[in-house]
Amino acid sequence: MIRKIIQIDEELCNGCGLCVNACHEAAIALVEGKAKLLRDDYCDGLGNCLPVCPTNAISFIEREALPFNEEEVMRNQEMIKKALEEKKEKEQSDHKQDIPFSGCPGSRIRNMNHQAAAKTENAELNNTNEPAPSMLRQWPVQIQLVPVNAPYFDGADLLIAADCTAYAFGDFHRFMKNKITLIGCPKLDDADYANKFAAILSNNQIKSITVIRMEVPCCGGIVHAVKTAMLNSGQMIPWKVITISTDGTVLDEN
């Protein structure tokens, strides 16, 4: 079809690229330092590029050209947008990796390597004298320090324990195996655990929760916080409570 379309005089073009930015349809690009119309069907003939050209290298002509393909232009714009977003995300990720951690060392997020631990665990099962391995899978573990969007939460089974339980029950790490562990004391910590737990549940796909508490009454606060968090977040997932006595025995597990 014969229609109005832009024409670029390469001899006048100085390669400034202003027309490339002005063309919302991405019909123009710099090729070997000169502006060039890439596709006729990307040019809508409205000429947003004309007024920005400092050398008057762009003009209108009427010639045989493919009709403007708005649908194809929109698809191309989405592809460009996606590519730019992916590039930005990569640059941000690379930038974060280049910046040394400058916060509190105790709150730096990290996953644990359990290959050596598994080897030690197998040795222990074979009645060797090697120490039992730690079952801790992440850091930090303190409820107040852990970020609610830490990557290790997604798809995790949570172990939420009153911090005294690890000292009272000698084989505590068996509860921790294959779980993300959080510890705290509802009596001593000046914090609303329910809000923190609700945020963790809302931001991640948590599979289950195991709560370990001492038999003392103040430990009921950590159980109440978990119940409240599930109700407030609308995430009613499988959960159970294990109660440890002050002399280190399991009193109840349900």
UniProtKB/TrEMBL annotation:
PROSITE patterns: 4FE4S_FER_2 (PS51379). Residues 4-33, 34-63 form the 4Fe-4S ferredoxin-type domain. It comes from the Bacteria. Gene3D superfamilies: 3.30.70.20. PANTHER family: IRON-SULFUR CLUSTER PROTEIN (PTHR42895:SF1), IRON-SULFUR CLUSTER-BINDING PROTEIN-RELATED (PTHR42895). This is 4Fe-4S binding protein. It comes from Mobilitalea sibirica.
